[in-house]
């Protein structure tokens, strides 16, 4: 997938298997899509793997929060596991784990995601429990206060992590207005003061059926998996259907940098400097424009034979590490070059990166580079989507956050259709060698 949670799968090394055979087995097929009367979208697929993954994708993340409740979506993710009207504290996780399953969740700027992995024979019993805690979270006051301390400790640990601090500085440089500049966890002073009633209101507003996609993949008939979910809503949970669909938030992408915006930070905990050069690029709303940039990121900085790794690390030895990424989110994308280096080499490395970008403006990538990376990217996508969990994750993400399953189903072919002219056009449109955001973190 392109540069997003699931696009990070592009960095997974391909296993040593017969490519044609695996591509045939793991290529995403068209799963069944079904909408319940209450508006919940179900995407289901039977696969010959003896497990079932149920993933719930909620269209809410930190981006929709106001500043005075920044961190609420993540805090609520924690509180969902504290039970529902019929499940007491710990009963949900005990039920999943006692049957040999597992469960987890994640919150980002654009979504919140919950899932369980269970044996097919246990799906009918355990799936309603996950639906219950997500849709009917009780958010008890006593547990709210106890979990607040857990979240505050998570924030403090994040602030003590040099990589997290650097990421925050980059976000604040790249995004001047968009809420992506804020931390998903929120600041300490906000989390210390939010109330359980605010959280219940947030849950009522955003955890409406029409604001979710449920993806279920595993070794059961599709009709059976859909039936288990449909039965949950027909068995005394009809009141969930009346929840109003929340009014979606809309944001405007920020304009490209018009000049070099430079920021320097000192971090005494570091032994070497860090350099990040970032460009504002296409978002998930312009998904097709992210593909050439994703391929280019791999050509420049994926593996020892990539351009910048070969030039700056292997040959000139002016960086200890260098990577290139294209990250696409719903309202803005970021193309970034990140390097770990000695502080005395910062100016040299910045100029070297600019020269690579200038060269791309003047001369397209080679046919050999494109063929190699195009194949790697499409095959890694295939190899990374063999398990029920991975496939359910892709279906839920693409349907709920991207807005369509079609790009996921056709991803390898889409990658193989990108030409070197497409890549050069993207470079000329988005990667101005004289206008970018640069963060330098010095020890």
3D structure, described in words:
The chain is 43% helix and 17% strand. It has 443 residues and is of the alpha+beta class. It has two domains: 26-242, Cytochrome Bc1 Complex, Chain A, domain 1 (2-Layer Sandwich), CATH 3.30.830.10; 260-442, 2-Layer Sandwich (Cytochrome Bc1 Complex, Chain A, domain 1), CATH 3.30.830.10. The strands form two sheets. Strands 1-2-6-3-5-4 form a six-stranded mixed beta sheet, with helices on both faces. The protein has a five-stranded mixed beta sheet with strand order 7-11-8-10-9, with helices on both faces. Mean pLDDT is 90; it is low at 1-27.
Secondary structure elements and their pairing?
Elements: H1 19-26, E1 32-35, E2 41-46, E3 52-58, H2 72-80, H3 91-98, E4 102-107, E5 112-118, H4 123-135, H5 141-159, H6 162-174, H7 188-191, H8 196-206, E6 212-218, H9 222-234, E7 260-266, E8 273-281, H10 287-301, H11 307-315, E9 321-328, E10 333-341, H12 346-362, H13 367-383, H14 388-402, H15 406-409, H16 411-416, H17 420-430, E11 436-442
Helix pairs in contact: 4-9, 10-17, 12-17
């Amino acid at each position: 997938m392109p540069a997003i949670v699931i696009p990070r799968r592009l960095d997974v090394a391909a296993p040593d298997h017969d490519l044609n055979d695996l591509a045939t087995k793991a290529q995403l097929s068209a799963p069944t899509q079904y909408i319940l009367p209450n508006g919940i979208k179900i995407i289901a697929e039977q696969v010959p793997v003896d497990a079932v993954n149920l993933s719930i994708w909620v269209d809410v993340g930190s981006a929709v929060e106001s500043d005075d409740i920044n961190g609420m979506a993540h805090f609520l993710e924690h509180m969902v596991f504290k039970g529902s009207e019929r499940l007491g504290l710990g009963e949900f996780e005990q039920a999943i784990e006692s049957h040999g399953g597992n469960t987890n969740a994640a919150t980002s700027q654009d979504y919140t995601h919950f899932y369980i992995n269970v044996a097919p024979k246990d799906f009918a019993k355990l799936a309603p429990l996950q639906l219950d805690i997500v849709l009917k979270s009780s958010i008890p006051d006593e547990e709210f206060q106890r979990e607040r301390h857990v979240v505050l400790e998570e924030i403090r640990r994040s602030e003590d992590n040099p990589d997290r601090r650097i990421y925050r500085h980059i976000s604040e440089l790249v995004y001047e207005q968009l809420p992506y500049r804020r931390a998903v966890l929120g600041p300490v002073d906000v989390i210390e003061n939010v109330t359980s009633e605010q959280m219940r209101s947030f849950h009522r507003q955003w955890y409406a059926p029409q604001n979710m996609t449920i993806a279920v993949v595993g070794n059961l008939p599709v009709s059976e998996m859909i039936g288990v979910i449909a039965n949950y809503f027909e068995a005394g949970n009809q009141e969930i259907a009346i929840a109003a669909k929340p009014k979606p938030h809309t944001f405007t992408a920020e304009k490209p940098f018009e000049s070099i915006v430079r920021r320097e930070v000192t971090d005494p905990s570091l032994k070497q400097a860090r350099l990040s050069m970032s460009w504002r690029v296409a978002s998930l709303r312009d998904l097709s424009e992210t593909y050439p940039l994703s391929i280019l990121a791999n050509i420049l900085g994926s593996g020892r034979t990539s351009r910048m790794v070969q030039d700056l690390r292997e040959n000139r030895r002016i960086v200890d590490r260098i990577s290139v990424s294209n990250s696409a989110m719903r309202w803005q994308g970021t193309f970034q070059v990140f390097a770990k280096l000695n502080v005395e080499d910062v100016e040299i490395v910045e100029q070297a990166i600019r020269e690579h970008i200038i060269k791309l403006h003047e001369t397209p990538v080679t046919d050999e580079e494109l063929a190699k990376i195009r194949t790697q990217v499409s095959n890694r996508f295939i190899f990374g989507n063999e398990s029920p969990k991975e496939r359910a994750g892709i279906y839920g993400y693409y349907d709920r956050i991207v807005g369509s399953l079609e790009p996921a189903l056709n991803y390898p072919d889409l990658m193989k259709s990108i030409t070197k002219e497409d890549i050069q056009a993207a470079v000329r449109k988005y990667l101005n060698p004289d206008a970018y955001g640069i963060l330098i973190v010095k020890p």
